[in-house]
Write a structure and sequence with these properties.
Elements lengths: L3 E5 L4 H12 L3 E6 L6 H11 L6 E5 L5 H10 L4 E4 L6 H6 L1 H21 L4 E7 L22 H19 L4 E7 L1 E3 L18 H9 L6 E4 L11 E2 L1 E3 H17 L4 E6 L5 E2 H12 L5 E4 L14 H6 L8 H14 L7 H4 L1
Parallel strand pairs: 1-2, 1-4, 2-3, 4-5, 5-6, 6-11, 7-10, 8-13
Antiparallel strand pairs: 9-12
Helix pairs in contact: 1-2, 1-8, 3-5, 5-6, 7-9, 7-11, 9-11
């Protein structure tokens, strides 16, 4: 029998890529998503890419803060495990609206954990973030590093991790994997699904692609005076398909071993400066990205990249793709879908 997996936030960027990999891996998938920062069109595209496995996917539009809707869903379907992506994810917005982030991310997760427990579904893969490390004293970041997030978004991720550890400590039947991931970029190689943020993008590559297709005049680069090789911040960029495969590896680990609550970094283990990433995209796309230099942003970190040894050893997973492939797939998505899942009229 195929296993039933609930994916919260499955219509979003990382969620949709993971859902596709789950379907191709033979799982039955139910998505719950409130579509606040995602699109149902993404799910239509996932179904097309999944081809004759698309009948194994269903979708419920609901918010995790709606406990009644969650309870109804778990009453109607017996889930073997949950992959939990749903949540708001803008560092800048979280600084302006911390209450919104605590309500959405923490309250939503608490509801999910309570309903899962009531219905006896006690396997969870949680989408955490490298932001929990804050300003690490040294790099690469290992999973044992102290957690000191520098913004409310990162703080919500840390709070949820703590909650998951408490849940598992109090009830040994729970098996939980916390995945701290670094900077997801790229798109599915088909160019049919990718990142399509609402409003002004929060992350580098969606912004770069919008400049490349003519939707924005230039890229604002925040911070050019960092103590790095070219003055711009260093990040660990990871291809979204590698990231999706990391979730499948985590799921298999939950099913195959008695794990408790364990944490893994998902990254490439390599640092790339923001300027190197922009240059790689220009080379791949043939498009010039005009730059405007600005001061550092509050909450931004100078250098962060992952130690990935633990995931490689215990999940049998390793990122396969480099920045050239990330940029090539990003441009393929952007050039085929300059306004994301919509037309210019819809979007603007």
């Amino acid at each position: 029998m195929s296993k039933n997996i609930l994916v919260t936030g499955g219509a979003g960027y990382i969620g949709s890529h993971t859902v596709l990999q789950l379907l191709l891996g033979g799982y039955n998938v139910v998505i719950i998503d409130n579509l606040v920062n995602s699109s149902e069109i993404a799910l239509d595209r996932v179904k097309q890419l999944a081809s004759d496995l698309s009948h194994n996917l269903s979708f419920i539009k609901a918010d995790l803060r709606d406990k009644e809707a969650l309870d109804k869903l778990f009453s109607s379907t017996k889930f073997d495990a949950v992959i939990h992506f749903a949540g708001l994810k803008s560092v800048a917005e979280s600084v302006q609206k911390p209450e919104l982030y605590y309500d959405n991310n923490v309250t939503g997760t608490n509801n999910l954990l309570e309903v899962m427990s009531v219905h006896g579904c006690k396997m969870l893969v949680f989408s955490s973030s490298a932001t929990v490390y804050g300003w690490p004293e040294k790099v690469p970041c290992t999973e044992e590093f102290p957690l000191s997030p520098t913004n409310p978004y990162g703080q919500t991720k840390r709070d949820i991790e703590d909650r998951c550890r408490d849940v598992q400590r109090l009830d040994g039947e729970w098996k939980i994997i916390l995945l701290r991931y670094f900077n997801p970029v790229g798109a599915h190689p088909s160019g049919d699904i990718g990142e399509d943020p609402r409003g002004i993008p929060n992350n580098l590559m969606p912004y770069v692609q919008q400049v490349a297709v003519g939707r924005r005049p230039h890229l604002t680069m925040y911070g050019s005076d960092y103590n790095t090789k070219d003055g711009t911040g260093v990040r660990d960029y990871i291809h979204v398909v590698d990231l999706a495969d990391g979730h499948i590896a985590a799921l298999k680990k939950l099913f195959d071993t008695d794990i408790g609550c364990e944490v893994y970094n998902l990254g490439t283990g390599k640092g790339t400066t923001v300027l190197e990433m922009v240059t790689a995209f220009e080379k791949t796309s043939g498009k010039k990205i005009p730059l405007v230099m600005a001061g550092r942003r509050s909450g931004d970190v100078e250098v962060v990249y992952a130690s990935t040894e633990k995931a490689e050893l215990e999940l049998n997973w390793k990122a396969k793709y480099g920045i050239e492939k990330m940029c090539r797939d990003q441009w393929n998505w952007a050039s085929k879908n300059p306004y994301g899942y919509y037309s210019a009229d819809d979007k603007e």
